[in-house]
């Protein structure tokens, strides 16, 4: 049986997905291998902590902030 991913691994995957270009919720769900019900609390938490920002559109686009970039950098996962 495969191991479950930690919350830290999931958050890292979400930040990485939104790093290069803005991503809609569907892209985040598919790239991070989550479902729509599970992704919402993660997105809300990352926005609250200032690691992710969302556009104010009807269908928001998510983008990793400078703080999110630094968090990925500290884990050695920053994309060049």
Write structural notes for this entry.
By secondary structure, the chain is mainly alpha-helical. It has a single domain, classed as Orthogonal Bundle (Arc Repressor Mutant, subunit A), CATH 1.10.10.10. It has helices at residues 7-17, 25-31, 36-48, 66-74, and strands at 23-24, 52-54, 61-64. Strands 1-3-2 form a 3-stranded antiparallel beta sheet. A hairpin with a 6-residue loop joins strand 2 and strand 3 (61-64). The longest helix has 13 residues, at 36-48. The radius of gyration is 12 Å and the shape is globular. The mean pLDDT is 90.
Share of residues in strands: 5-15%
Structural class based on helices, strands and sheet pairing: mainly alpha
CATH architecture: Orthogonal Bundle
Strand order of the largest sheet: 1-3-2
Characteristics of this structure?
single chain; 80 residues; mainly alpha; Arc Repressor Mutant, subunit A; three-stranded antiparallel β-sheet; globular
Structure summarized in a few sentences:
This protein is mainly α and 80 residues long. Helices cover 50% and strands 11% of the residues.
């Amino acid at each position: 049986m495969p191991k479950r991913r930690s919350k830290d691994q999931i958050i890292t995957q979400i930040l990485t997905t939104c790093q290069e270009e803005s991503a809609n919720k569907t892209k985040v769900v598919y790239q991070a291998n989550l479902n729509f019900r599970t992704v919402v609390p993660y997105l809300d938490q990352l926005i609250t902590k200032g690691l992710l920002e969302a556009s104010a559109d009807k269908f928001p686009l998510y983008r990793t902030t400078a703080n999110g970039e630094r968090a990925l950098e500290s884990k050695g996962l920053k994309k060049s």
